[in-house]
Amino acid sequence: MINAIKARRSVRTYDARTVSDQLRQQLLADVSYDNPFGIPVEFRFLNAKEHGLVCPVVTGTELYVGGKIQKDPSACAAFGYSFEQFVLRAQDLGLGTVWLGGTMNRAAYEKAMELAEDEMMPCASPLGYPAQKMSVRENMMRKAIKADKRLPFESLFFDGDASTPLSREKADNLAVPLEMVRLAPSAVNKQPWRVIVKDGTTQFYCKRSKGMGGGDLDMQMIDMGIALCHFALAARECGLDAEFLQNDPGLAEDMEYVASYRVQ
Ligand SMILES: Cc1cc2nc3c(=O)[nH]c(=O)nc-3n(C[C@H](O)[C@H](O)[C@H](O)COP(=O)(O)O)c2cc1C
Questions:
Q1: Which of 138, 140, 188 is the best mutation target for the ligand 1 pocket, counting ligand atoms within 8 Å of the beta carbon and taking the most?
Q2: Full set of structural domains in the chain with CATH
Q3: CA 89 to CA 95: how far, in whole Å?
Q4: Distance CA 171, CA 175 (A)
């Protein structure tokens, strides 16, 4: 999955080729996109025409995939973890995706997902083959949110406490899994993930951006779930044993603790 993480970018311009039934099957059959929070996500393919789905930034595909999950304090992080696994598998199969949380007629997507009272649909994504050339709108959007840039390694990852930057050299066998966190997609590319490494354990915190705080549809907690997913998949691929736990070590007062991985 490290290759998929490196190759992925948001795709908003598609080339109109349809995704075969066989490929759709392959995306959902025999794969459980589970997450360490233990809250299952149900995926559904949706047709834009049939359900009146509108996403003004996407062109060239009618196919979308939505995910729904039981409401829970950990639902957004759990959803981020599971849906990102889907995104990376789609990438591996040559398909493009883009996380959609805002630029869509959300009510139509939620209706199409047939949400029960206790369920939510945090995000959806179009699905299709990336076009050779991005639309003018997509190009402008990427420039405006600096979508190709990420914060430096030393601004995201810390050594023992929340104020000592961690270098790649010092990160040692954690350098690759942490670099994969750094490459993760995030809402408006705000990159809220911060990781403090202490005694072989990576503590994941959320550093909130102004105006993006909490609520039921918590985009930055979805970002945290995506980061945990990248870390765990990359750690496994690097032959590390990463054990998930939730136990706030209280290392940072101005950030929200989410979860940790004890790595061996
Ligand atoms: C939780 C979440 C919500 C997002 N919502 C939208 C959205 O509503 N519309 C959109 O065009 N992109 C959306 N994005 C995509 C981000 O803008 C994109 O991931 C980021 O700019 C980094 O670019 P990249 O994915 O090409 O690396 C979202 C991403 C995440 C993780």
A1: 188
A2: 2-136 (3.40.109.10), 153-263 (3.40.109.30)
A3: 9
A4: 5
Cβ neighbours of 89 (radius 10 Å): 18
Output the CA torsion sign for 54, 59, 60, 63.
Answer: negative
Are 43 and 32 within 8 A, CB to CB?
no
How far apart are alpha carbons 244 and 263 in whole angstroms? 9
Q: Is 151 a pocket residue for ligand 1 (Cβ < 6 Å)? A: no
Q: Which atom of ligand 1 is nearest to the CA of 222?
A: 1
Determine if ligand 1 sits within 6 Å of the CB of residue 11. no
Task: Answer yes or no: are the C-beta atoms of 259 and 245 closer than 8 Å.
Answer: yes
- pLDDT tens digit sequence for 8-66: 999 999 998 999 999 999 999 867 899 999 999 999 999 999 999 999 999 999 999 99
CA 122, 128, 131 angle in degrees (round to 5)? 120
The Cα-based distances of 235 to 64, 180, 232 in angstroms read 30, 9, 5
Q: What is the full DSSP assignment across 60-98?
A: S--EEEEEEEE--TTHHHHHHHHHHHHHHHHHHTT-B--
Taking the CA of residue 141 as reference, the ligand 1 atom at the shortest distance is 11
Place of tokens 């050779």: 132
Residue-wise over 92-110: b if at least 16 C-beta within 10 A, else e? eeebbbbbbbeebebebbb
Q: How far is the CA of 100 from the centre of ligand 1 (A)?
A: 6
Report yes or no on whether pTM surpasses 0.70.
yes
